[in-house]
Design brief:
2 copies of one chain form a homodimer. Chain A is an alpha/beta fold and about 525 residues long. Helix content of chain A is about 30%, strand content about 15%. Chain A contains 18 helices and 15 strands. In chain A, the strands form 3 sheets. In chain A, strands 1, 2, 3, 4, 7, 8, 9, 10 and 11 form a 9-stranded mixed sheet that branches. Chain A has a 4-stranded antiparallel sheet with strand order 12-13-14-15, covered by helices on one side. In chain A, strands 5-6 form a two-stranded antiparallel sheet.
Chain lengths: ~525, ~525
């Protein structure tokens, strides 16, 4: 019997793994580090896409982007996809949400199937299976599905849009300025720290957890930070300085004709044009680091409350991010593409079960992926017997010191850049912009639809500075990596209306169904 | 303006292309030949799987098996899949069904979404988008969704199960015997020919067409023959003799250690054990050929009625099959696998529009596929502007003498043999039994999950007798064919909740939605 009764699934948005002190980073994150000491750090955790929507849909469905089909931020999650919420509901449980999911409702699918949009089922389908306590995606002003705007007004921030006017605004001597303009992110936000997004959502989570009393619960606490707008409240806005921001990675091919055409096309985007200037990166990084430190501080509050209430002993805690960001490395800004700054994320899992005692504080090098979360949660809650269409695997054995047979020896990630300006720079149609990464312990290979591949020798070039995708000497390696991707593509779960167990039960049973073929 | 007002989509079940006289076969099919003279014969028409369910779901959705997910006969068609019926309903039209679809309702999906099963929507979803006038899949006794059992009883066939007792039974001197036992298929069925399955369903179709009057219509007339049980009514049971049944193809590797392991595993199935005996093939082929001749005769009746009512001038007519069958060739019985006997089907399309006059009676060598039907019908009905998730292409240009740019130069087919006994022979799990064929004008290559590939040199070996899949001399060819499959797998339409046109419209529009990223 597992002692796990609750699951706390904490996600940060756009948080780079290499910024956290427990992963060797420059931001001191004592509470996250303490979490790592109680659990396992996964050193090779990859997300299924380096952008919010598709990465999160993989976390929430346990399926790869090619399987769930929500290939970019604006793409609705099909009503046909089973989410973590579906599996939990089937077992009489639920998953509550405080914060961001980036689920885009499949309104057309809901309407086609005649589901009343305001029914319990319609609400749940539109929310990707989450019970939305307070939904707030963070990149536009909070809407009615969040209490944040009212909360701000109740605390004296008088505005129709207190987010734009206070949370992501600053007020230097010359008047109110916006955090959208990155030149302003050295200034403190106009909200007091206790009223900031991170503080507010932590309060929502704490209140909800307390309200559950002894009832088992599953909560997705999903911070919108340190994602842009990079506006930190005092004192976090000034916690770091230029000198703290570390090296900025530059490769010999950056911006040259040797660079991959898609990477070069991304350089035309605003965020890359801005971040290609080292001064911009040095100006923004301190705010990003401050926002990260702030998340850590509130997690400290949260973990302390769990400890006080005894919940640390029966709660599985996950801390991770939907993807990272470049912050000027390689002269790039924002996310997408397949460099480790973006697709390799922090992941810490604390399993309160005593069987996990031996792994506490350890680092695990095996490849794990966003798709592994759903099966991990289900197994931890004793719901492993519920069949799923998940393409991931439960991490529980790894947490409990076992290495399951045939554990994956590579991670996969995908991208659909059809919505991005880079597509037009490259003269491609909306359906011709897909890419697939496979990353082993030695190599990272990226297949780009319509272009040459990328290849990096992670042994000799761990920072992925020299793209060997066009180097004739590595054709054998590329063929091997392509073969891996072929197998992965061919092996995706296409059949979603019957389980393997159903098929096992029905194999070669036609005679029992009155079908007597082939009899002489 | 197209003159097409109606669509008649005729499908036979398990009909081999090479049996029809207009494709060089030994069964004289004057009415199908006349259809060919009025339209276009597609010489390289491939189905997306060599077995009823997945092949038909590709015909009905316009999507490959890996995309629609109904990977075998028993697998429900997900409610999320858009069918031809969906596209037509969106345009205020409908598609009527007389005969077989093999659609397995996605009961779990319908229930999960709270759709009332007996509502119009529930009925339509469960039927794969068809308005079922008379649904009869033909491999078990007709159920209440067909009027056939009552019709038989009304015509004097007194039985609770007149299909088993009369239609697929014979009555030699020694008593009543079943057509399930193939030794009996030289005998005439116990039904009179006008009451046979093919006659009955033609009557249903004719009556329905007449009832439409001048209202435009779309009808899927889907014969269950010449599929087993191979019981033909007189005089068709005796129309052919052993001497008419032609050569039986045998290859040098058949049943040897050089044979592909999956093919060898199929030989353990009853139908292959029976058909591996030439005497069985010679005994069954005449019945199969008789059933084929009978379909032709009833199509003659149907086409004559269309002619008389003027419908030939405004009706697009398609004649095809869901797959073929071995009938003892290679010592195999039934279907599946990827030989041309099974996956290359007859396909004739008559476009009444005068723009198609120049192609009448011609043969087209370009590769066409089952997935092309939905876009063909929609374009013919002037509904091409409805965006679809189809992976096929309209055949209308080919019918009207154009060769669209970038027409495919290969056909693809798939198989999931997880339900078959062969899986257990091979010791594989239900989810480990997939195969993918790609066939160009020169080569046929088959990727088998977990096994070596198959390769056939169609130039030098058009009967596919020598499998070069393990021959070291052909590794370059295999690599080229594998690369084609890779591109096909990578290019499947994963995103089904947004159209390309939506993405075109929304590309790089984040600023207009208030998201001001990357601005310095």
């Amino acid at each position: 019997m597992s002692t796990v009764r609750n699951v706390l699934f904490v996600m940060c948005d756009q948080l780079r793994r290499d910024h956290l002190s427990c992963f060797g980073g420059r931001v001191h994150t004592p509470h996250i580090d303490a979490l790592a000491a109680r659990g396992v750090r996964f050193d090779h955790a990859y997300v299924q896409s380096g952008v919010c929507g598709p990465s999160r849909m993989s976390f929430y469905t346990g399926r790869y982007m090619s399987s769930h089909g929500a290939t970019w931020n604006s793409v609705p999650l099909s009503v046909a996809q089973h989410t973590l919420g579906d599996y939990l509901h089937k077992a009489g449980r639920r998953i509550a949400l405080a914060g961001k999911t980036h689920v885009i409702p499949d309104e057309a699918g809901i309407a086609r199937l005649g589901v009343a949009r305001d029914s319990a089922r319609g609400t749940l389908l539109a929310a990707g299976g989450f019970d939305e306590i307070d939904r707030y995606d963070g990149h536009t002003p909070p809407g009615p599905e969040s209490g944040y705007a009212d909360y701000l007004r109740a605390n004296g921030y008088r505005s129709d849009d207190p987010w734009s006017d206070f949370v992501i605004a600053a007020e230097p001597d010359e008047g109110i300025v916006s955090g959208w303009d990155m030149r302003n992110v050295h200034l403190p936000s106009r909200v007091a720290e206790p009223h900031s997004e991170t503080a507010y959502m932590t309060d929502v989570a704490l209140r909800w957890i307390r309200a559950q009393g002894d009832t088992p619960w599953v909560l997705h606490l999903s911070y919108v930070k340190p994602h842009w707008p990079y506006m930190a409240p005092a004192p976090y806005h000034a916690m770091f300085r230029d000198a703290d921001t570390g090296p900025i990675v530059r490769g010999p091919q950056d911006g040259t004709a040797d660079e991959h055409p898609v990477v070069r096309a991304y350089r035309s985007h605003d965020e890359c044009r801005s971040f290609s200037q080292e001064s911009v990166a040095r100006h923004v990084r301190p705010a990003y680091m401050g926002l990260t430190a702030q998340v850590d501080a509130h997690l400290g509050r949260l973990f302390e409350a769990l400890r006080e209430s005894g919940r640390l002993s029966d709660t599985l805690v996950v801390f991770t991010a939907d993807h990272g960001e470049f912050m000027g490395d390689r002269g790039l800004g924002e996310k997408e593409l397949f460099y480790d700054e973006v697709v390799r994320v922090p992941m810490i899992v604390v399993d309160p079960d005593s069987r996990a005692d031996a792994t506490r504080g350890t680092r695990v090098a095996h490849f794990v992926e966003g798709v592994d979360m759903v099966p991990t949660f289900l197994e931890a809650l004793g719901l492993a017997a519920i069949e799923t269409y998940c393409e991931g695997r439960s991490l529980l054995p790894l947490l409990r010191g076992e290495i399951p047979a045939g554990w994956r020896d590579a991670a996969v990630s995908e991208l659909d850049y059809g919505f991005r300006a880079a597509r037009r720079v490259l003269g491609r149609g909306p359906g011709e912009c897909r890419a697939f990464m496979v990353r082993t312990s030695e190599w990272k290979y990226i297949h780009w639809e319509g272009f040459r591949p990328q290849l990096f020798d992670l042994g000799g070039d761990p920072l992925e500075l020299v793209d060997l995708g066009a180097d004739a000497r590595f054709e054998t390696i590329r063929a091997q990596m392509r073969a891996r991707l072929f197998d992965w593509l061919a092996g995706l779960r296409r059949r979603t209306t019957l389980h393997d167990a159903d098929i096992e039960r029905r194999t070669a049973t036609h005679r029992s169904r009155g079908i007597h073929i082939g009899i002489w």
